[in-house]
Write a structure and sequence with these properties.
single chain; 142 residues; alpha+beta; Glutaredoxin; four-stranded mixed sheet; two-stranded antiparallel ribbon
């Protein structure tokens, strides 16, 4: 059984779709609702390094105090941005998924497929988009 962790926000459609695709691969992940239990600074820095992402690349602007905190200022250091995420976990974009195959910010949700065993069945996202066919194969997008 593959060990997968998802930093999840159940109010987010992308996060819910990602979780459903993990389960569609036959994996029951460790679900961390990051707004209730945010990753430590060390854990977040390690995940970002494994994902090849910068702190700025995981900042979420919509529905967060991003603008009020002036986080768009390019002169702010990673340390300052990490402090902001620590104080306001909603600033961390989601979902972040960790598996033995790597770490990904799964936006769009299909990015999770690179981290999982093959899908077991058809998968249709909440918005009606068909991602996986009945044979468990990825559907080509136009």
């Amino acid at each position: 059984m593959m060990d997968v962790v998802i930093y999840h926000n159940p109010a987010c459609e992308t996060s819910r779709n990602t979780l459903a695709m993990i389960r569609n691969a036959g994996v029951e992940p460790h679900i961390i609702e990051y707004l209730k239990c945010p990753p430590t600074r060390l854990a977040l820095t390690q995940m970002l390094a494994r994902a090849g992402l910068t702190v700025r690349q995981i900042l979420r602007q919509k529905g967060t105090p991003y603008d009020e905190l002036g986080l768009g200022d390019p002169s702010l250091s990673d340390e300052t941005l990490l402090d902001a995420i620590g104080a306001h976990p909603i600033l961390m974009n989601r979902p972040l998924v960790v598996s033995p195959k790597g770490v990904r910010l799964c936006r769009p949700s299909e990015k999770v497929l690179d981290l999982l065993p093959p899908q077991r069945a058809e998968f249709i996202k909440e918005d009606g988009e068909r991602v996986i066919d009945a044979q468990g194969h990825r559907v080509a997008t136009a």
